């Protein structure tokens, strides 16, 4: 005998109708069957109701029957105590006789009673009398929506007004965690005053079991199918209105209500049922296998309304609209427009008194359209016209704090955004949020998030790297473990995109060309050819899926900018025609009306839009500002904005991130600030503690500055227009070694610390310096190997080194190693490696003959570690975890090497994007680069339909 799940798959492939009958009838007694509450009770669910007029249940007197269904009989009654009319719903006897189910229902009824909303019929109580259990419900006068639809389809204004009322009811319930699960026209009433009331909220879940029958005729007469605990593997709902996941007995959530809402709206507009058939089985087959017949909708139906229906009626819940209600902030954004229409109507009314009989219905219809427009405009429907921009903010919370300097990316379809944030455990991860909800959730296995993530072209996967883990991975936003696409990224991701052919192109945060890899993983190959002094980043495929935009950074300002590449040509054959001069990324956004779109880019702190034809690869017209005060990512060629293909814009205000140099004591308490706010990175304290060498300025043109600790003054140390960064002091404090891109790629240079003399290059090896041994004999630096990612190298006698000096590798493996630091006595090297996890701190011995780092090694960190630093006496080692904890480890080298248990000192202050801290010689203070507003991160501003406001200004 096949397991039930196998039978389902087999029967569905063979015969969909047979599969439906299997699920509904409980073939061979499997746990998928439905339990009838008793044949006698099932037979009683007929128009001739069981309770006679005048019968009493406690203090409720029966007036007459109202209806019946699989969930019970409903009567009109009078509450003699409160002297009001109510509706009584008699529960099935088998339900009432089951103590466990009754207790569960009582708990559910308490939740349902909390739904105090004008569009939801209220529950007054759960009572019993002479063994009969019944619900006391609000009596709602007026016809049901099902009765109204018997006369045919509705006018658009009326349908949208009723739909808005249903949406309000659903939204209010969803906010309380209640899902209807049985939304249908029979459960919607329209009062004589026109008010919409949704009935039986949550009762499909609360009532438990009732058996569906293979009835024919009106789907409204089909009973609600439910099962105890509404568990997975059990079908529940009314056949014609249930969602595919309900029909397939899969777990359901509020998206099932979204589907039912779409089915109901379709029926209101067309006058026809969306899914119909002569029996329950045929209806289920229809909704599982067929798409709605869109031809039944009126030809005059606005495209935006049809798009709303299409999003509601996606069979895959992941692609379905996640909320039927409009967001409160979106409604507020529409209020001004609605007010303008009302004012126009009031002015026009006196001039057309004789026409007032038709004027006010027209105004009411216009107001209804505006109200529902707030629902429709939650997403940028590309075929709509006369759109208005909608703005709202995404903020952090007590449970989730923004991290990573404001990095974010909106998905190509405009429905999602991803950003780094820390959770309640302090761990930095990537978080995903749908723009039509207020909920954010962490991406699995993304600990160590710190740079902007990216999206695949289908908006299904997030592409990312993490701190200390240089793999390019992709994660499905619907869940599941990430998949590794590439393993040899030298540093963090700087943009990625994919096309319909399964090609992923990406850039990294170092001098490197764009690379390509299959969307299923494999070897990486270059897409562009790197010239001297360049780096290629932030790619985005254009609509044809072959051409792409990318940022080419360069030491030559005349070459810095946005270029167009193609996957169809060899790297060395890529066009070198600059499309746009800029030092930040640019995005192409298609026009909602078709035709050419716009190139969106940052000019200083102003976000600009300029018409761009992706077919001709040409810009036209003049750029026009669309947002002011947009921030930039500290230390990268990246503006804090992202644009979807469909008109969703996300950005973060700030006008330029400023950082400062701040002292922190051993308990994490502030202990003073140095200098003025600026753009700082990678501070290095002099051996005597009197001066600080620090990189300052925009990333592409940073210089080294020297800060006097006592006076707080700053003096510029390097003057080359290229990037000078990562300063390291000589042990006597007389020289500083740093990395500079002035000769193309980053190489080591040395200069006297007092500023006298010229810089000179130390060898031809590319890399960034990290530590100078106390005896002055050796320099450690990190260099990127073609096959070994980040490696640790040793340069002998750096004080007298020349371009002819020959460094040797200390540690060059298939893993990524870096941030190496000599111990004060020169016997040990602490470094970061991803060989055992995302990132950890290890220690290896170092011999005076500068031999490689083979042999013994010790894992020092616990649960990740980066940026190690030794205390001046060598008895403690400090590092930061990827969850931003600042840790200390006691070290004993009297008998070999022994490390104690790591202990947390405090949480590291943001941004921690580079090696943004150092330790004072006395070991009692730490210097951090922090953002002044670290405790008050700016929210993300989201603009839907941004081009609408752009066009309304005549541009």
Outline the low-pLDDT stretches. Answer: 1-49, 206-236, 326-386, 951-955
- How many strand elements? 59
Could you give the distance between the termini?
69 Å
Shape estimate: elongated
Regarding CATH, which class of the largest domain? Mainly Alpha
Any idea what the CATH architecture of the largest domain is?
Answer: Orthogonal Bundle
Helix content: 10-25%
How many H/I helices? 15
What fold name stands as the CATH topology of the largest domain? Transferase(Phosphotransferase), domain 1
Would you tell me the overall average pLDDT? 78
The main sheet comes to: 6 strands, antiparallel
Strand content: 25-35%
For the record, the count of structural domains works out to: 5
Structural class: alpha+beta
Numbering strands along the chain, what is their spatial order in the largest sheet?
A: 1-2-3-4-6-5
Radius of gyration: 34 Å
**CATH superfamily grouping of the largest domain:** Transferase(Phosphotransferase) domain 1
Task: Explain this structure.
This protein folds into five domains: 1-33, no CATH class; 34-319, Transferase(Phosphotransferase) domain 1 (Transferase(Phosphotransferase), domain 1); 328-376; 390-653, YVTN repeat-like/Quinoprotein amine dehydrogenase (Methylamine Dehydrogenase, Chain H, 7 Propeller), CATH 2.130.10; 659-930, Neuraminidase, CATH 2.120.10. The chain contains 15 helices and 59 strands. Helix 10 packs across helix 12 (303-312).
Summarize the structure.
With 955 residues, this protein is of the alpha+beta class. It contains 15 helices and 59 strands.
């Amino acid at each position: 005998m096949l397991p039930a799940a196998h039978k389902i798959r087999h029967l569905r492939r063979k015969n969909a109708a047979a599969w439906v009958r299997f699920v509904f009838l409980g073939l061979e007694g499997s746990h998928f069957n439905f339990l009838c509450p008793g044949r006698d009770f099932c037979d009683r669910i007929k128009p001739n109701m069981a309770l006679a007029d005048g019968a009493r249940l406690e203090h409720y007197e029966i007036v007459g029957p109202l209806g019946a269904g699989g969930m019970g009989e409903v009567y009109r009654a009078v509450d003699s105590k409160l002297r009001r009319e109510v509706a009584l719903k008699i529960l099935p006897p088998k339900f009432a006789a089951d103590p466990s189910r009754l207790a569960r229902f009582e708990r559910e009824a308490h939740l349902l009673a909390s739904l105090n909303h004008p569009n939801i019929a209220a529950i007054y109580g759960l009572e019993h009398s002479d063994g009969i259990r019944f619900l006391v419900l609000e009596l709602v006068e007026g016809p049901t929506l099902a009765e109204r639809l018997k006369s045919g389809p509705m006018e658009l204004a009326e349908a949208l007004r009723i739909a808005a009322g249903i949406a309000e009811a659903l939204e209010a319930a969803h906010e309380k965690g209640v899902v209807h699960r049985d939304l249908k026209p029979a459960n919607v009433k329209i009062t004589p005053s026109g008010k919409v009331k949704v009935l039986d909220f949550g009762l499909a879940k609360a009532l438990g079991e009732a058996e569906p029958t293979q009835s024919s005729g009106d789907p409204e007469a089909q009973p609600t199918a439910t099962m105890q605990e509404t568990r997975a593997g059990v079908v529940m709902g009314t056949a014609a209105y249930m969602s595919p996941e309900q029909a397939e007995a899969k777990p359901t959530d509020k998206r099932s209500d979204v589907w039912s809402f779409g089915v109901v709206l379709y029926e209101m507009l067309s006058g026809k049922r969306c899914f119909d058939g002569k029996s329950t089985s045929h209806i289920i087959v229809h909704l599982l296998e067929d798409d709605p017949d869109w031809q039944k909708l009126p030809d005059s139906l606005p495209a935006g309304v049809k798009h709303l229906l299409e999003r509601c009626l996606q069979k895959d819940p992941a692609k379905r609209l996640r909320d039927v209600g409009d967001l409160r902030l979106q409604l507020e954004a529409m209020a001004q427009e609605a007010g303008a229409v009302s004012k126009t109507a009031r002015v026009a009314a006196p001039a057309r008194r004789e026409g007032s009989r038709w004027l006010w219905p027209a105004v009411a219809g216009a107001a209804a359209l505006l109200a529902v427009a707030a629902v429709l405009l939650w997403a940028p429907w590309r075929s709509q016209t006369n759109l208005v921009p909608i703005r709202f903010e995404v903020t952090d919370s007590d449970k989730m704090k923004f991290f990573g300097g404001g990095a974010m990316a909106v998905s190509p379809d405009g429905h999602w955004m991803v950003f780094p944030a820390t959770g309640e455990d302090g761990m930095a991860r990537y978080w995903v949020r749908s723009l039509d909800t207020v909920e954010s959730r962490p991406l699995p296995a993304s600990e160590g998030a710190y740079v902007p993530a990216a999206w695949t072209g289908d908006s299904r996967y997030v592409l990312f790297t993490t701190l200390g883990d240089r793999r390019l991975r992709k994660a499905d936003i619907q869940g599941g473990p990430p998949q590794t696409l590439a393993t040899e990224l030298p540093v963090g991701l700087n943009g990625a995109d994919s096309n319909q052919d399964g090609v992923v192109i990406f850039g990294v945060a170092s001098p490197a060309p764009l690379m390509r890899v299959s969307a299923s993983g494999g070897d990486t190959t270059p897409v562009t050819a790197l010239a001297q002094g360049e780096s290629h980043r932030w790619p985005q495929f254009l609509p044809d899926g072959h051409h792409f935009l990318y940022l080419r950074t360069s030491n030559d300002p005349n070459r810095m900018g946005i270029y167009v590449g193609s996957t169809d040509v060899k790297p060395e054959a890529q066009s070198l025609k600059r499309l746009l001069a800029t030092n930040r990324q640019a995005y192409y956004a298609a026009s909602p009306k078709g035709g050419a779109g716009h190139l969106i880019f940052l000019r200083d702190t102003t976000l600009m839009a300029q018409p761009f034809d992706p077919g001709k690869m040409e810009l036209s017209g003049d750029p026009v500002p669309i947002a002011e005060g947009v921030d930039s990512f500290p230390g990268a060629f990246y503006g804090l904005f992202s644009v979807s293909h469909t008109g969703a814009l996300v950005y973060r205000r700030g006008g330029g991130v400023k950082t400062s140099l701040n002292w922190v004591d051993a308990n994490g308490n502030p202990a003073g600030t140095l200098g003025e706010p600026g753009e700082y990175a990678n501070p290095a304290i002099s051996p005597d503690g009197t001066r600080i060498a620090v990189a300052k300025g925009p990333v592409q043109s940073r210089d080294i500055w020297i800060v006097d600790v006592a006076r707080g003054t700053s003096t510029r140390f390097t003057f080359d227009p290229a990037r000078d960064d990562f300063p390291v002091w000589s042990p006597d404090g007389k020289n500083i070694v740093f990395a500079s891109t002035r000769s193309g790629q980053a190489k080591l240079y040395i200069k006297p610390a007092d500023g006298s003399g010229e810089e000179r290059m130390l060898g031809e090896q590319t890399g960034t310096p990290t530590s100078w041994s106390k005896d002055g004999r050796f320099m450690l630096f990190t260099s990127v190997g073609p096959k070994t990612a980040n490696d640790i190298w040793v340069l002998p006698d750096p004080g007298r080194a020349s371009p002819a000096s020959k460094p040797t590798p200390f540690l060059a493996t298939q893993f990524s190693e870096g941030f190496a630091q000599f111990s004060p006595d020169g016997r040990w090297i602490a470094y970061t490696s991803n060989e055992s996890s995302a990132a950890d701190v290890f220690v290896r011995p170092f011999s005076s003959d500068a031999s490689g780092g083979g042999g013994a090694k010790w894992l020092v960190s616990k649960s990740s570690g980066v940026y190690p630093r030794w205390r001046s006496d060598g008895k403690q080692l400090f590092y930061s975890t990827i969850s931003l904890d600042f840790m200390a480890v006691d070290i004993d080298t009297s008998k070999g090497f022994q490390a104690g248990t790591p202990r947390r000192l405090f949480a590291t202050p943001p941004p921690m994007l580079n090696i943004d801290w150092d330790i004072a010689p006395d070991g009692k203070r730490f210097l951090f680069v922090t953002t002044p507003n670290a405790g008050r991160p700016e929210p993300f501003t989201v603009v839907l339909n941004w081009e609408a406001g752009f066009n309304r200004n005549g541009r």
